[in-house]
Amino acid sequence: MATAPGWIRQFHKSRGGAPLVICPHAGGGASTYRPFSTRLRDDFDVVVLQYPGRQDRARETPLETLPEIAAGAFEEFARSPYNRGEPVTVFGHSMGSIVAFEFTRLAEAAGVPVRLLGVSGAVPPSRVAELPPHPTEDEQLLDHVSGLQGTGSDVLGNRELMRMALPALKADYAAFDRYSCPADVQVRAAIHAMGGSDDEYVTMGDLYGWQRHTSADLRVDMFDGGHFYLHDQVDGIAELLVAEREVAA
């Protein structure tokens, strides 16, 4: 019997460094973050999560809640060779930032040290429940995705390709829309919040709102671009993550 693909993807063998766990955005597959692995392979042991319901896990049913996604990912990470007792950096974009936050909560509860939680293009966890729900009708949802600025991705810019990704995207948005988190829930890890200067969905104020969710420090940085600015800012984000690692070392 074939073994299920599982949660963790590594595109490049590590050349040294502590683990970096990357949590993709809604509807996103692990391969979207291959450029980050390429750029950071000399500095981190980079792994990217693959959620059920996409790419090589397309036949699996997507999970219904973000805490379930984080729990499935952390369970596999905790027993993997990537969990070596070294401090972990966790990074997520958009919905992936909330998954990264929940992953960090689980890691800290299990005694796995988290050096830094990097969040990108995301409102703080306690604000998610205040947001209007995402569209559920196919064409409206495609319009919403097509309207995201600075996609930097041929897939996001191609309506027909995005139509193929609708089942995973719908499931992820539904999981995001049912998420809630009290304002007093905190992680011990420092948080580095990043965003696009032209993002119509996440403001600089939203990024500063992550302060309430850490008992440590918050740093905020803005880049040129829209909601998916990160595809054009791989080097800049990588430099910040490496700098944070060196300061904490």
TrEMBL record:
Catalytic reaction equation(s): a fatty acyl-CoA + H2O = a fatty acid + CoA + H(+)
Origin: domain of life: Bacteria
InterPro entries: AB_hydrolase_fold, TEII, Thioesterase
Keywords: Hydrolase
Pfam families: Thioesterase (PF00975)
Family listed: Belongs to the thioesterase family.
Protein name: Thioesterase TesA
